[in-house]
Amino acid sequence: MNFNEKIYKIVCQIPKGKVASYGQIAALAGYPRAARAVGYALHTNPKPGVIPCHRVVNKEGRIAPAFAFGGPEEQANLLRAEGVVVSETGYVNMKQYLWHPSSF
Fold first, then answer.
1. Residue 89 burial (CB < 10 Å; 0-12/13-18/19+)?
2. Candidate list 14, 53, 84, 86, residue with the active-site label
3. Is 12 a catalytic residue?
């Protein structure tokens, strides 16, 4: 399984109503210093309706300023539709919405 496939597999595990950070996804994939590469993999997501890349935010909870599938407002709307509160400035409360996988 290549890097992108690992990333997509992990991102598919994030439940509705939760978010993960790029760094968290990188670490779960076994590449703890590859947060930027995770961002690139998600930017080129081949199945945006299937692989929920909108559930990945930066470590402070900020949504992507250049969300590839409709812009930052679309990412915010997708998260809000799942019950995640996104502030007017584009942030998610990581203490409240961070995904804590029980095992991976």
1. exposed
2. 53
3. no
Element (H, E) at 57: strand 56-57
pTM comes to 0.93
Cβ neighbour number for residue 58 with a 10 Å cutoff: 18
The token pair that represents 36 in the structure block: 């930027």
- Report the alpha-carbon distance of residue 94 to residue 90 in Å, rounded: 12
As a whole number of angstroms, the distance between CA 95 and CA 90 comes to 16
Model pLDDT for residues 12-55, shown as the tens digit of each residue: 999 999 999 999 999 999 999 999 999 999 999 999 889 999 99
Longest dimension (CA), the chain: 38
Beta carbons of 14 and 55 less than 8 angstroms apart? yes
DSSP-assigned letters across all residues of 32-100: TT-HHHHHHHHHT-S-TTTS-GGGEE-TT-BPPTT-TTT-HHHHHHHHHHTT--B-TTSBB-HHHHB--
